[in-house]
Structure formats: structure tokens, C-alpha cells
Specification:
- It is a single chain.
- This protein is α/β, with parallel strands linked by helices.
- It has one domain: Rossmann fold (3-Layer(aba) Sandwich), CATH 3.40.50.
- The protein has five helices and five strands; from the N terminus they run βαβααβαβαβ.
- A five-stranded parallel β-sheet has the order 2-1-3-4-5, with helices on both faces.
- Helix 4 (62-65) links the parallel strand 3 (56-59) and strand 4.
- Helix 1 packs across helix 5.
- It is globular, with a radius of gyration of 13 Å.
């Protein structure tokens, strides 16, 4: 795993436990509520912060983010099923990372993590 080159920004609808699970796997994961503030704007705050710090955004707000063009983000992991436990989300992200040849190959891509979880 080359997790160290993958860095994640977890939207405020993604719990701290997911960040902890990702950190245990060697990833850098920060929470919007820690580095920005609760209630900040997706387009005015979250996306610019992610771009500035080369972070993949992980969010359950797929209706807000899924319509973005590739040039508007550094990579998006969308969560449709809100019932996934934190460990499952982390395992799914780990699986997704392993499937891409590099962090750069994910730039501007978006994936539904639900598709990466075993059912």
C-alpha cells in the first residue's frame, strides 16, 4: 500500500471514527470540522481547501458533489449508503486506493465507495 501519498478530507457528514480507521491504515485524513468549521460551504470552503492541500474529498453529500466536472476537484469518494460502519468505509477506501496505479491517476475522478464494498 502506498497510502502515504493519498490524503483525504472527510466532510462533516463523515464521522471521526472513519478518520481514525484511515489513520490506522497509514493515510492522512482530516475532518472538515477540525480544519475549517462546521457548516462551511462545499464550493466556497471545502473544495478550495481540498485543492490547496491535494486532498480527496469523502462525503455523503453525493447529490451536491456528483455533478462537479473533473476540473473542479482533486478526487471525490461519494457515499450513497449512510449506514456503512466506519471500518467498512475505510476498507472500501483502501480497496479503491489499491486499484488505482497512483494518487495522480485519481485526480478529477469520482467513485461511489458503495461499489467498492463487498455486499
Amino acid at each position: 500500500m502506498e497510502g502515504t501519498e493519498w490524503r483525504f478530507l472527510l466532510d462533516e457528514n463523515i464521522g471521526r471514527a472513519v478518520a481514525q480507521e484511515l489513520a490506522q491504515r497509514g493515510y492522512h485524513a482530516e475532518l472538515v470540522v477540525d480544519v475549517l468549521a462546521p457548516g462551511v460551504g462545499d464550493y466556497t470552503d471545502v473544495l478550495p481547501h481540498a485543492r490547496e492541500h491535494d486532498l480527496v474529498v469523502v462525503t455523503k453529500d453525493y447529490s451536491d458533489f456528483s455533478s462537479l466536472s473533473a476540473s473542479e476537484h482533486e478526487g471525490l469518494i461519494l457515499v450513497a449508503n449512510h449506514a456503512h460502519p466506519p471500518i467498512d468505509l475505510a476498507v472500501g477506501i483502501d480497496t479503491l486506493v489499491d486499484a488505482y496505479p497512483s494518487r495522480d491517476s485519481f485526480r478529477g475522478q469520482q467513485e461511489f465507495i458503495d461499489d467498492w464494498l463487498s455486499h
